[in-house]
Amino acid sequence: MHPIRQRLQFLFSSTKGLILMAMAMVAVVTALFGMLSGPMAEWGVRDVVVRLLGMKLVQAEREGRIIILYHSIAMAIIAIESYMITGLVKMRPIHRVVVNTGVTAGYLTTMIFGLLFAYWGRLWPFHGLFIAGLTVMFSSGVVLTVALWPWNKEFYIKGPKSEYARTRSGLDLERAAFFAMAATTVVSSTFGAVAGAYFGNGFEAFLAENIIRSPEKTTLEYSVIGHLHIMLALIAIAVTLIIGRWLDFKGLYQKIAMPLMILGVVVLNLGVWGVVTPLEPIAHMIIYMGATPAMLAALMLVIFGFDKLIREGVRGIDRPTFGQKISALTRDPLRFGSLWQMVFMNFTVSGIGILMAVRLDEIFRVWPAREERIELTGHWHVLSAIIATIILFYYGDLTGLKGRLRQWYGWLIIVLSDAAFASVTFFEMKRLFISEAQQQPLVNWLMAGIDFGLGSLLVVLAALMVWRLTDLFKKKGLWTREAAEENLYQVAK
Amino acid sequence: MTRKFASIRRLLFTTLVMAALGMCACGPADVGAPVPVYDTGADTTEWASIPAGEFLEGQHETAVSIDHDYEMMVFLVTYEQYAAYLNDALATGTVRLVDNTIVGHYPGDEFRGARHEVRIDPGDYLHVALNDPALRLEFREHAFTVTPGWEVHPMTMVTWFGAGAYCDQYDWRLPTELEWEKAARGPLDGRESNRPFPWGSEIARNNANYYASRDPFESMSSYGSRTTPVGFYNGKIYGAFATIDSHSPYGLYDMAGNVWQWTGDVHPFEHYRYLRGGSKDTYDMDLRIWVRNSAAPTYASPGVGFRCAR
């Protein structure tokens, strides 16, 4: 076979190649478009990039551009998760091929044509292709849902005893959780699609954080707000399930976690869908009721995973000390990191949300809307980035990082990302402990933490991508082995 | 091998701890740092006439009409003007000095019990807190004076009640959001009627005072962004800093950047009051004409000021 065709076949048809390709696309888009805002704009980098690349940035179209950028990145992340799911969960080969082909075509079309439309002049055929890309992603989601159908006897857990959660008849509850996540993702995407079609027709793009204080919101505005929240929550739930599969989550904790996860996913979605119904006044309460079991399920995974890492690490030691246990827990930064980030998320996302809710009257009822916006956008950017780092940990393992390289890669991601996320969290909350007039030195330190952390993280990602790129030039590179692997870590149940 | 891995972890954790310690060691900014003084030539008593008629409102450019002529101050209310007002108002009793704060009466708003709505009953409300180090006023021997150097800077650290009371004192009022927006955007006359900034389509660092706009009043490494004198961006050159004349189509200055400006609307179902124009502390995107900010009427900040309408 022609060498170029072989490599393209690896990138576009093998599971690991597809993941690599999507990660490279996200890395390029993040690096490029990250130069258009925040400190990069402050330092004048934005102006240079805009001039060099011939971008056309109309002031009134900023919100629309950002919406397209978010969707472009989100579709690539959903594609990566889909590849991981088709590689981890048993399904018919035809389903795997259709899903992988669909999401690849979908995210690439969405990303390429969406960004061309948004940043290089409004060429309408590109907008049409952007929508077409999203539609293909939706259709692939439907196929994935069908592929994950848990009542297919072929995929029941057989045998008298099992370490995995199942019903008495053998229904695999983890598969049911994947199915619930996929099915509700497909339904929830329509909450964005319907509202998007309406606002898009009138080209009245808006960012949800800018209408948060409107006392009267329309049903379609609620729909957009619900959509963005639930989609991010479902992406987080998907990555939790993926990590569970990677770590071979089983035993008592898994048997408790899976029913909780299914319940959480269903109730959480019902709550979010409720925002466009007369249930809107109590929708938040329903959402809390759904979020709690879902987060408890994630806690079960963390407990299981930590315990597993410690057991593996102290094997052969009669009476391990606390220090030896900690050392065992942190020996593999990739597996530890993926679980640690779920714990850390509680300090930077959930904890902040709870604190804000408790002190609502003295914070949001008084603070200016722009401060509230910082807190809102800050906490969901952190959640998105935490999900991205968890994917990076898993990918590091998938790509076979070992020894010192694995240590540097894993620990750099943990330390750099957490330094950045902690800085973002302090930045969001700064008004609680420093006045506007006195904040600048603190802001400078925090911004340095954010910029250094995220910037260095991108350098780590770039190093990984360069390594994989150079590998593609080798005749017998890592890619030749990965091309032959269809499944990732599928565990026979 | 394990020892090597442990050293990697140790190195990274040490770096993190050092960074955290560095952050804890940073002190607050020097609020009293000296301020440069420039003569902008602004006549702070000037008013701009805005005729009735249509303009393009909002980001999505909806044609809206205002059915009355009105006037708005060409410049933001300055510290000098507010100090003079406070001395008058204290003498006539329209405001009172209570526990190091200036308070005044407000007749209250109708409370509709909407979600998140906070009740504003008739009573005395905060106008200015005198003990805030960011306030550029001094109260000595029963009279207010301005901290030297800040005389023609916009009055800040003033609540919505304090801003409204100033305008009331002279039988003026705060502009409505719609009036403010028309004054910034200009009439619907076909010539850049949809301009996103009061002066046109694009923004440069010498158009307005915004975050990290590098004006002579800011030092991002120490005290951060500070206000510029009213009407500073008038095409003059101040030392090495050349400004662009950035008035709105009706001739108003500082309609983008410098300080957020209180507007007068009391919207039903909410206690929030709305602010327009962006400030020294926001990125350029918040200086676009249609961008809204809101806060409780008791909120005060070094980045919030006002101007009056009549």
Helix content of chain A: over 70%
Extract low-pLDDT stretches of chain B. Answer: none
Q: Output the CATH topology of the largest domain in chain A.
A: Four Helix Bundle (Hemerythrin (Met), subunit A)
| CATH class wording of chain B | Alpha Beta
Report the CATH architecture of chain B.
Alpha-Beta Complex
> Which strand-content bin applies to the residues of chain A?
under 5%
CATH topology of chain B: paralog of FGE (formylglycine-generating enzyme)
Q: What structural class should be given to the helix and strand makeup of chain B?
A: alpha+beta
Domain tally of chain B: 1
Mean pLDDT of chain B: 92
Helix content of chain B: 10-25%
- From the spread of the alpha carbons, the general shape of chain A counts as globular
Main beta-sheet annotation of chain A: none
Q: What kind of assembly state do the chains in view correspond to?
A: heterodimer
Number of helices of chain B: 4
Tell me about the largest β-sheet of chain B. 4 strands, mixed
Quickly give the CATH architecture of the largest domain in chain A. Answer: Up-down Bundle
Number of structurally distinct domains of chain A: 3
Report on the architecture of this protein.
- The complex is a heterodimer of chains A (493) and B (310).
- By secondary structure, chain A is an all-alpha fold.
- Chain A has helices spanning 3-13, 15-33, 38-42, 45-53, 62-88, 93-119, 124-147, 173-202, 219-246, 252-273, 280-313, 322-329, 333-358, 369-398, 403-429, 440-472, 478-483.
- Chain A has three domains: 1-147; 170-331, Up-down Bundle (Four Helix Bundle (Hemerythrin (Met), subunit A)), CATH 1.20.120; 342-493, no CATH class.
- The longest helix of chain A is centred in the middle third of the chain and has 34 residues, at 280-313.
- The two termini of chain A are 37 Å apart.
- The relative contact order of chain A is 0.09.
- Chain B has a single domain (49-59, 72-305), classed as paralog of FGE (formylglycine-generating enzyme) (Alpha-Beta Complex).
- In chain B, 18% of the residues lie in helices and 19% in strands.
- Chain B is built from four helices and 15 strands.
- In chain B, the strands form six sheets. Chain B has a four-stranded mixed β-sheet, covered by helices on one side. A three-stranded antiparallel β-sheet of chain B has the order 5-6-7. In chain B, strands 1-4 form a two-stranded antiparallel sheet.
